[in-house]
Specification:
- About 30% of the residues lie in helices and about 35% in strands.
- By secondary structure, the protein is of the alpha+beta class.
- It folds into two domains: about 5-120, Probable inorganic polyphosphate/atp-NAD kinase, domain 1 (Rossmann fold, 3-Layer(aba) Sandwich); about 125-290, Tumour Suppressor Smad4, CATH 2.60.200.40.
- The strands form three sheets. Strands 5, 6, 7, 8, 9, 10, 13, 14, 15, 16 and 17 form an eleven-stranded antiparallel β-sheet that branches. A four-stranded parallel β-sheet has the order 2-1-3-4, sandwiched between helices. A two-stranded antiparallel ribbon has the order 11-12.
Length: about 300
């Protein structure tokens, strides 16, 4: 599929509403770059996913997500419905911008726009999570950065209740949720082995960053494997200084690497993917190696 013309999918609510100003600057640089593109903007939840699906049907070779991690996740889920599928471009305009950090997207907006107009691409793995809703309905979601169950799912629930975003809101929600959340029993099945973990959360990582924290700094997003981490209270507390801007590398956790893992518990636990709620455990996570081309 040739790039031809690109479709921009912009979420004006991302970054606490600050994404519009960033998009205005990006549009100036894209116009100067010579990239031919059309523009669309979201009006409601999951609209970015539908706009990405429409871009696939209309034959666009590149879809550019302008927004935060939730917007990117929606666009990815729209793209993954097709094969072959368009390439993914990103203009990070959210609060945490974890995926942009994970792929090493430049911080200079003009450089990003030049990349979007160019031909440089890389292939990355895409994660898939199959879970169930509270009503027992099966649900599937694709993700490109990090998914998990337990505390991180509860944290995402609480974030979605906030009327505004930003790192201060995220940090405050993290501390408040951590103060009341307790460790749970997780039963994990992978590589023909079944283990039990007593943990606050279990993260299934494709990328490096979660909640603005470099929790998995050595991740290779094209190696066809997840890094799975069971994190207890001391490790979660160790993340807070990094989250608040101190040097990375303070979080230590055990790593289990693999292509597929099933998580269960003896109680309902929320499951999230790229900061979007999916459902509850039991959940199965599996990887699609090098399934998506991105501009990076």
């Amino acid at each position: 599929m040739s790039v031809g013309r690109a479709m921009v999918v912009h979420n004006p609510s991302s970054g606490g509403g600050a994404s519009s100003a960033k998009w205005n600057r990006a549009a100036y640089f894209l116009d100067r770059s010579g990239l031919r593109y059309d523009y669309s903007r979201t009006e409601e939840g999951l609209h970015a996913q539908e706009l990405a699906r429409q871009a696939v049907q209309e034959g666009y070779g590149l879809v550019i997500a302008v927004g935060g991690d939730g917007t990117i996740n929606e666009v990815v889920n729209g793209l993954m419905a097709a094969d072959p599928r368009p390439d993914l471009g990103v203009i990070d305009a959210g609060s945490a911008n974890d995926f942009a950090h994970s792929i090493g997207l430049p911080g200079d907006l003009e450089v990003v726009c030049r990349l979007l107009a160019g031909e440089r691409r890389r292939e990355i793995d895409v994660g898939v999570v199959d879970a169930v809703t509270a009503g027992g309905e099966a649900v599937r979601r694709y993700f490109v950065n990090v998914a998990g169950a337990g505390f991180d799912g509860k944290y995402v629930e609480e974030i979605h209740k906030q009327r505004s975003g930003g790192l201060i809101v995220y940090a405050g929600t993290l501390v408040r949720t951590l103060a009341t959340y307790r460790a749970r029993n997780f039963f994990a099945c992978f590589d023909q082995e079944r283990v039990m973990w007593r943990a606050l959360t279990v993260l299934v990582c494709n990328g490096r960053h979660i909640a603005a924290t470099a929790i998995n700094p050595d991740a290779d997003m094209s190696d066809g494997q997840f890094e799975v981490m069971a994190i207890d209270l001391p490790k979660m507390l160790g993340a807070i200084p990094t989250y608040l801007g101190l040097p990375a590398g303070l979080v230590s956790a055990g790593y289990w690497r693999g292509k597929q893992i099933r998580l269960e518990s003896d109680e309902p636990l929320p499951v999230e993917a790229d900061g979007e709620l999916v459902g509850e455990v039991p959940a199965e996570f599996w990887i699609m190696p090098r399934a998506l081309r991105i501009v990076a």
